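Duplicate of #3305? Posting structure anyway:
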């Protein structure tokens, strides 16, 4: 199967509010897609449906051919937009936690990523700066051999140097047998990572396509395109 994620006429309503409306979106194996949209456009709702935390109102969604649920949870590696580690932990404890919890966790990969990120196993999680925390979170998430990686605002609040390091880690450690969905408001910074983008506006996909073709067709960067669509 070529698509890891398939969404067909996906709609989600919270009471009267329609958060996702008739979304048709596929993510092919080996692709990194940027899910872009302003506050309240429906990004978190889509992620929660993919994670099996929320159920859609109508339409269909599958991950590697399966409906989101117990089976797909083990295939999805998720980076939340806030820190999720316990205060008492050292970096090595967080590695142990992930290793215990996920069968697909690759300790060797985690070790290499820590080195790349210039993080040491004995550092306490609470003593890490925001950028270092983000690097650790990303190390944990990328060290799993998942089918789908979901990164929610991976570089928010991180300085430009750390940002570049994080982006390099994403590109270099990306597994071609999987797909990756990244949400961000920092379109300009993440542009080089995306192969595809989907623009979400008021719950609807208003633009979706290959970044290279979009750039050539419209003669502008994704960032410029984003500003034009959402101005
Ligand atoms: N539990 C809920 N009950 C009612 N409305 C909700 C609920 N969760 C989200 N919404 C609404 O659904 C819409 C989409 O919200 P969502 O959180 O998916 O947007 P988002 O794109 O992730 O925003 P942000 O960038 O601010 O995180 C918004 O209008 C929001 O107010």
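Output from current build:
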């Amino acid at each position: 199967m070529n698509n890891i994620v398939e969404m067909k006429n996906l709609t989600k309503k919270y009471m009267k509010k329609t958060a996702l409306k008739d979304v048709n979106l596929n993510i092919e194996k080996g692709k990194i897609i940027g899910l872009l949209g302003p506050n309240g456009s429906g990004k978190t709702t889509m992620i929660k449906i993919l994670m099996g935390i929320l159920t859609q109102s109508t339409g269909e969604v599958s991950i590697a051919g399966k409906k989101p649920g117990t089976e797909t949870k083990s295939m999805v590696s998720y980076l939340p937009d806030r820190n999720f580690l316990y205060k008492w932990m050292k970096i090595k404890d967080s590695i142990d936690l992930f290793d215990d919890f996920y069968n697909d966790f690759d300790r060797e990969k985690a070790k290499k990523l820590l080195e790349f990120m210039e993080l040491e196993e004995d550092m306490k999680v609470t003593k890490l700066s925001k950028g270092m925390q983000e690097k650790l979170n990303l190390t944990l998430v990328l060290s799993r051999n998942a089918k789908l990686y979901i990164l929610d605002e991976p570089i928010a609040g991180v300085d430009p140097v750390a940002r570049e390091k994080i982006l390099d880690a994403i590109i270099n450690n990306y597994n071609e047998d999987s797909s990756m969905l990244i949400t961000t408001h920092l379109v300009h910074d993440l542009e080089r990572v995306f192969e595809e983008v989907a623009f979400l506006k008021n719950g609807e996909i208003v633009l979706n396509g290959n970044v290279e073709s979009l750039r050539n067709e419209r003669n502008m960067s994704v960032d410029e395109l984003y500003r034009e669509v959402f101005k």
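Confirmed duplicate; merging threads. The longest strand covers residues 3-14. The pocket of adenosine-5'-triphosphate is lined by residues 14, 17, 19, 37, 39-45 (CB under 6 Å).
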